[in-house]
Amino acid sequence: MDLLVDCGNTRFKWVQWQDGRLREESALRVSEGLSQAELAQCWVNISRPSRILIASVANESVTRQICAWAERTWHISPEIIQTQAQGYGVMNGYRQPETLGVDRWLALIAARHHCALPACIVDCGTALTLDVLESNGQHRGGVICPGLSLMGQALLERAPGIQTIMKEYKSGEILADNTGAAVQAGAFHALVGFLERMHRQLPKLHWIITGGDAAKINQELSFPCQWVPDLVWKGMVIVGREQ
């Protein structure tokens, strides 16, 4: 069994790859780092894996904590996946390839191997990212904007007069009847509108969507978009096989 680990900006996620399939994903919110005690609690029921693969866009302290725990508890040195200029059938389109987030790199790899091309890949996490991949594996570049939660949080932080409890906004509704839901509605409409505009600019691509907020955003889009919730994990599996 291989243990795959994805350290994002706000969530630490892991999944087991065993017998040719991905098992159920688990996650922990990590707004201020990750402790050894938290790791022990998360992985107490996991058998010693053969390998640990880590993809991280979090601060380096999170990766160091995971490596230290794995080396002390399981005597395994995790393998850290890095973004490359070229590999696994994908050519990185960034001028400085190493600055492309490894989660985006893995999504591109997975799309190259599992999805119709050319494609536009949208990842709805803390940030919403969009990347275009040509049929020959050439990455054309991308766009980054704040995700749903981050957009709402930024407004509340910069507008202290809005004293509110964030209440759930029901997608499909145009207007909200309380300030918390109105903030969420504004962020939601902004992101859906952004994607609609990008689709008008890039209409001939196969659109793919992934990430924590993908399902709720996808249901409001006016164009077909393939929802692939495990896209980054699939990219990690490909890298793990060839690494």
In terms of DSSP E residues, the strand content is: 15-25%
What is the count of DSSP helices, taking H or I runs of 4+ residues? 7
Q: How many strands, which pairing sense, and closed or not: the largest β-sheet?
A: 6 strands, mixed
Mean pLDDT: 92
Compute the number of structural domains.
2
Query: Ranges with pLDDT <50 over ≥5 residues?
Result: none
Order of helices and strands: EEEEHEHEEEHEEEHHEHEH
Distance between the amino and carboxyl termini: 16 Å
Q: Give a count of the beta strands, DSSP E runs of length 2 or more.
A: 13
Topology, please?
Elements lengths: L1 E6 L3 E8 L2 E2 L3 E4 L6 H8 L7 E6 L3 H14 L5 E2 L5 E2 L2 E2 L10 H13 L4 E6 L2 E7 L5 E8 L1 H11 L20 H23 L4 E5 L3 H5 L7 E2 L3 H12 L1
Parallel strand pairs: 1-5, 5-6, 9-12, 12-13
Antiparallel strand pairs: 1-2, 2-3, 2-4, 7-8, 9-10, 10-11
Helix pairs in contact: 3-7, 4-5
Structure, described:
- There is one protein chain.
- The protein has seven helices and 13 strands.
- The strands form three sheets. Strands 1, 2, 3, 4, 5 and 6 form a six-stranded mixed sheet that branches. A five-stranded mixed sheet has the order 11-10-9-12-13.
- The protein is 35% helix and 25% strand.
- The protein has helices spanning 36-43, 60-73, 102-114, 148-158, 179-201, 214-218, 231-242; strands at 2-7, 11-18, 21-22, 26-29, 51-56, 79-80, 86-87, 90-91, 119-124, 127-133, 139-146, 206-210, 226-227.
- The protein has two domains: 2-80, ATPase, nucleotide binding domain (Nucleotidyltransferase, domain 5); 86-231, ATPase, nucleotide binding domain (Nucleotidyltransferase, domain 5, 2-Layer Sandwich), CATH 3.30.420.
